[in-house]
Design goal:
mainly alpha, about 60% helix, TPR repeat, 15 helices, 2 strands, TPR_rpt, two-stranded antiparallel ribbon, about 400 residues
């Protein structure tokens, strides 16, 4: 009788795959399933949090955000959903006997057994999701007075404010070669957990406010107060993710100072500069995303003071990126006209704010250079500036008065 071949994957690799699976579930609107998947991934990532992270660009936070944006354009990315196996591992057939099933269960409890079909989907398979009842669409008025029709079971809308809603994914190169991302993986999973709670809270709050009786009757176990619970949980997780991000950067700065000379000998100067720029832009972009989403939660909760603080942090980060020429369109990297239009929009808003507050103008902002590292897309930047516009308009009105 042929022996059952099993494969033992390191926990951090399982966590990476589970994170990508949860990201797909969240983007399809199945937030409860995504949260459950993220929790499993976070537990598996704890063992690798203290390990030295891989220094390649595929394992950076900026690459995870770029992979997230590119993957969200399609409902199912073949690259991310393809079964991947690190070198030296063989595929695992499903258990065919009770003894094999018991052996599999024992290894699953230890967190080292892995069956690809249980962690990540095949290209030709569809994931079985929980049943979600469909309610009639209804009309919603945005903050600009435009009315549109939307189904509450679809991607949740945000009541006039922009919310960054792309779950972060681990790059396929990292998974295929079994790279250890260290604490960066925990940071990605915690952010995704926060985002899933945030979007679930928004959806249920919108459903409750619109009074969709057909939806509430079809989901009798739905907690009407869960919207506030979910948003509170999202708030805590966002803050935890940001604090972990700050601690990681401080630790990385200390490590880089100690090993600067050795790194320069091992790598080309151009590659080192590219990696440094990618990490710095990833730091700034993550700061903008967290500040924006935290501000939206405080706005909904009517915490005006904290809402303004988040907007100020967001606006100051945007100004820093503009002055450093870090901004560019993620989808149109080679389009100078888009960069010019983006530059003009930011210049008009930020220069007006500077004139009203101090009576002086900032240094002229030149056209954004074409670089090889994508940062903030036009969609993101428009949303960030729209959320921060009340702060800029308030400064202008206060200066005029």
């Amino acid at each position: 009788m042929p022996s059952l071949v099993q494969e033992s994957y390191p926990p951090h690799l399982l966590a990476q795959k589970l994170n990508n699976r949860g990201a797909y579930q969240a983007e399809q609107g199945y937030y409860e399933s995504a949260i459950s998947t993220y929790v499993k991934a976070l537990k598996l990532s704890e063992s690798s949090a203290n390990h030295a992270p891989c220094g390649c660009r595929y394992c950076s936070l900026n690459t995870c955000m770029s992979t997230s944006a590119s993957s969200s354009t399609s409902s199912l990315s073949p690259i991310l959903m393809r079964r991947s196996c690190p070198q030296g591992h063989k595929s695992t057939p499903r258990p065919s006997s009770r003894k094999a099933s018991q052996q599999q269960q024992e290894q699953e409890e230890d967190g080292y057994y892995h069956d690809d079909n249980d962690v990540i989907m095949m290209e030709d398979e569809e994931e079985v999701m929980p049943f979600a009842p469909v309610s009639p669409s209804f009309s919603v008025s945005s903050s600009y007075g435009t009315s549109f029709t939307q189904d509450p079971t679809e991607e949740p809308f945000n009541c006039g404010g922009y919310v960054y809603r792309h779950a972060l994914r681990v790059h396929p190169h990292t998974i295929h070669y079994c790279h250890n991302m260290g604490v960066t993986l925990s940071l990605v999973i915690i952010f995704n957990l926060a985002l899933a709670h945030h979007l679930m809270g928004i959806r249920r709050n919108n459903i409750k406010n619109t009074g969709s009786s057909s939806w509430n009757n079809s989901v009798p176990n739905m907690d009407v107060n869960y919207d506030s619970k979910a948003l509170k949980k999202a708030l805590q997780l966002y803050e935890l993710a940001y604090q972990l991000h700050v601690d990681e950067q401080q630790m990385a700065a200390t490590t880089n100072c100690a090993t600067h000379h050795q790194q320069r000998e091992d790598r080309e100067e151009a590659q080192e500069q590219e990696g440094f720029e990618s990490k710095r832009m990833g730091m700034l972009r993550f700061t903008m995303i967290v500040s924006n989403n935290l501000g939206e939660i405080h706005r909904v909760a009517k915490n005006t003071t904290k809402h303004v603080m988040c907007l100020q942090h967001l606006l100051s980060t945007i100004m820093y990126m503009v002055d450093g020429h870090f901004l560019m369109d993620n989808n149109n990297n080679n389009n100078n006209n888009n960069n010019d239009n983006q530059d003009n929009r930011i210049r008009s808003g930020i220069t007006s704010r500077s004139n009203s507050s101090s009576g002086t103008t900032r240094t002229s902002i030149s056209t954004f250079p074409i670089t090889t590292t994508p940062t903030v897309s036009t969609e993101e930047l428009d949303g960030f500036l729209r959320n921060a516009s009340p702060l800029m308009l308030y400064d202008i009105c206060a200066g005029a008065a």
